[in-house]
Design goal:
Order of helices and strands: HHHHEEEHHEHHEHEEHHHEHHEE
Number of helices: 14
Structural class: alpha/beta
Strand content: 15-25%
Distance between the termini: 57 Å
Shape: globular
CATH topology of the largest domain: 2-enoyl-CoA Hydratase, Chain A, domain 1
Largest sheet: 8 strands, mixed
Number of domains: 2
Radius of gyration: 22 Å
CATH class of the largest domain: Alpha Beta
CATH architecture of the largest domain: Alpha-Beta Complex
Length: 326
Amino acid sequence: MEKPAYVLEFEKPLRELTKELDSLHQKSLENNLDLSAEVRAMEKTIEQAQREIYSNLTPWQRVQIARHPKRPYALDYIGMIFEGFQELHGDRQFRDDRALIGGTAFFNGESVMIVAQQKGRDTKENILRNFGMPQPEGYRKALRLFKTAERFRLPVITFIDTPGAYPGVESEARHVSEAIAVNLREMAMLRVPTIAIVVGEGGSGGALGIGVTDRVLIFENSYYSVISPEGCAAILWKDRAAAPKAAEALKLNAATLEGLGVVDEVLPEPFGGAQNDPAQAGSALKYALQKHLNDIRGLAPEQLVAMRYERYRHLGSYLEAGVINA
C-alpha cells in the first residue's frame, strides 16, 4: 500500500480540496457522469488556494518546508547534475562520519570536489546519518577534501543541510568547536574557487563549517541562521514552543539574506517547495552553478583569497560613535 503524502499543517486545506477533486473524478468514472465543469471549478479553487498559501508563507512555514522529509537532499542533487561521483571516506584520524559526505565528480565534463551534509529518509538512515548533524570527524574529513581539492586545483562545491553540528558529549570531547574553527580559517584561505548551496537547513556553526566560500546560493524555502528557531526560542523565551516567534525574529527568509549580502543568489523552487518537482529544482541549481563557476573559475588564487576576505570582512553592520557602518 502506498504511504499517504506528508502534509504540513498549513497545507491541510489544500489536502482537503484535493480529496474533493479526487472524489469528483471517481464519481464521474463510477457513474459515467460528465462532471467536467465541476472538475474545472475545483481545479481553479485549488490553484487559487495554492497561490494564497505559498505566496504568503511566514518564516516558520518556510522552515517547515526546509525540513520536509521529501525535500531533495544533497545526494539527490548530486545524482541529478553531476556525473561520476566517487565518494571518499574518513578523516584519517578517528572514523568516517556519514552525516558529511564528499568526493570527486564531474560537472559539465570538468572535475570538482563535492562536500555535503546528508540527512536520511527513514529512521534507520537518519540514525546512520545522525540526522544530518556532523561530528568533529565530519568537519575534519571535509578539511581533508578541501586540501585535496586545492592540491589538484579542483573547484569546491558544498551542500549545506543541517540543523547544526552534533552537540553530544562525545562530539564535544573530540573538540567539535575546534574542528569547525579550523575549517573557517582554512576555507578562507583556499586557493581554488568555492561555492556553497543551502539546500534545506543551514543552522549555526554546523552549517558555516563548510560555508566560507566565494559564492553562497540558497533555495528560496531554505534558511541560513546563527541558530535554529527552537534553540533561539529556548534561550530567549525559555520555551521551544515559541519557535514560530523566533523564526520571525531571526528573519528566516532567503530574500532577506540576499538583501543583506549574506547570500549571492536565491534559487527558485517549484510551487510549494522543491519536493514537488525535484527535477525542476535541480535544473535551477545546475544553471546557477554554471553561471557562478564561470564568474570565478578564471581568477588567480591570490584574487580569490583577497575577494573572499573582502566579502566576509564587510558582512553585517557595527555601531561606532553612534553611527551605523555597513
